[in-house]
Amino acid sequence: MLTQLQILLFCTAITPIFGIFGGKTAELGQFPHVASLRLNNFHFCSGSIISEKFILTSAYCKSRGSIELITAVVGTIHQVNGGDHYNIVKYLNHENWTQASLLNDIAIVEVKTPIRFNKFVQPIRLPTKLFDDKGIATVSGFGTVSYPNVPSKYLMWVDQRILGLERCRIANAPVIVYDSQICSHPDAGQGICEGDIGGALVMDGTLIGIASKSTYYCGSGLHDFYTNVYFYLDWVTNNSN
Ligand SMILES: *[C@@H]1O[C@H](CO)[C@@H](O)[C@H](O)[C@H]1NC(C)=O
Questions:
Q1: What's the Cα-to-Cα distance from 143 to each of 43, 118, 163, 171, rounded to whole Å?
Q2: Contacts by 170-178 with C-beta closer than 8 Å and gap 24+?
Q3: How many A from CA of 198 to the centre of ligand 1?
Q4: How many angstroms separate the alpha carbon of residue 50 from the centre of ligand 1?
Q5: What's the pLDDT tens digit per position in 105-133?
Q6: Are 44 and 37 in contact (CB under 8 A)?
Q7: Buried-exposed string 13-22: b where 16+ CB fall within 10 A, e elsewhere
């Protein structure tokens, strides 16, 4: 019996594909920190390489399966082919991760053997200060490119305007927006979607955010939410040694 994912992958083979939602196709080596987290070799979430042994991702993704069935694939822009595959030995969610509010949506994945770095596989720098919240940042992922649920054949990327937290709070009330979140304001038809979750939001070569959720429906033009990595530097350090 075909799983739902296999059917979807079959569909992508015959359907023209666009975006991370309104994005562009990445070139090999453009985002060398990107990891595809796969369950039985089917992509379910994205992550970012931060060292030879550790990948940063979203806590929301952990529910997708037992770690023996999960691999991290790096060094490819294809969702299905190529890349280096690593087994994982740990998938650690933040202890105060809360699904309902998405507070503390951060997790660390440990690979079994050290990731080999090259031109197409590199760790990304963690932030050393709070970023400029009026800037533009880039998100990339293998996530859904049209709704519902058409996974992308290629790694895609799009630029996002960062929205200051105060404006984000006003726009999203009564939903609580935490200091430890980053809010972006994509143009209509752009942004993150299922499968992009856990992926990197990058500004000036630094991992500032982890893709956490898109509002309402993907590409709605409403806000996307990211976990602000700067708030979790101690947690990351304590759990990646
Ligand atoms: C989780 O929450 C508890 C209770 O508020 C707190 O003591 C603890 O430090 C938190 N853990 C982390 C890793 O922030």
A1: 9, 25, 22, 26
A2: 171/223, 172/215, 172/223, 176/101, 177/225, 178/101, 178/103
A3: 22
A4: 23
A5: 999 999 999 999 999 999 999 999 998 77
A6: yes
A7: eeeebbbbbb
Average pLDDT, the chain: 85
Pocket test for ligand 1, best of 94, 95, 178 (most atoms within 8 A of CB): 95
* pLDDT for the residue numbered 41: 86
What's the gap in Å between 94 CA and the centre of ligand 1? 9
- Of all protein residues, the one whose alpha carbon is nearest to atom 7 of ligand 1 is 96
Q: Check: pTM over 0.85? Answer yes or no.
A: yes
Highest mean pLDDT among 46-60, 147-161, 167-181: 46-60
Q: How far apart are CA 152 and CA 78, in angstroms?
A: 9
- Side chain identity at 7, as an amino acid letter? I
Tokens of 117: 């770095």
Candidates 98, 19, 67, 57; CA nearest to 211 is: 57
